[in-house]
Amino acid sequence: MTKRKTTVFNGLGFPVVLVNASVAKTPYGETLDVDFNRLQDLVFEALIRKPARFAGAEVKFIRLFMEMTQNVFADFLGVERSAVAKWEGKDLKATGMTPATEGLARIQMARHIKHSLDKEFPYIEPAMRKTAVGNPLELAL
User: pTM for this structure?
Assistant: First the structure.
């Protein structure tokens, strides 16, 4: 039996509020009944538009989603590898990344998924209610 509920998912390294997520009952309890590859795609797209600054865990998710090492990601953004390690070490706190570098990261993320920054993501925008660093992303599924 499947039902829908709002739940916090921490499986990406930072909290994401899943609104109206499908939850299946199993003999071992409840489990999310979602396409996790699609969830990662939605979170990546939501991070492009997130109005707040990136947290360290989000930077690590972005880098891994783009299948880059710290060295490659650093080159990609024109910084030293140690800067990437420092950002990622901030975990759920703001990275301290310069606005210019964060803007470049968002542009490169948009290019990565072959969307322009002007393209709307209507299934994500209304769901992004909690956007301050330390607050989870919220996605309507």
Answer: 0.79
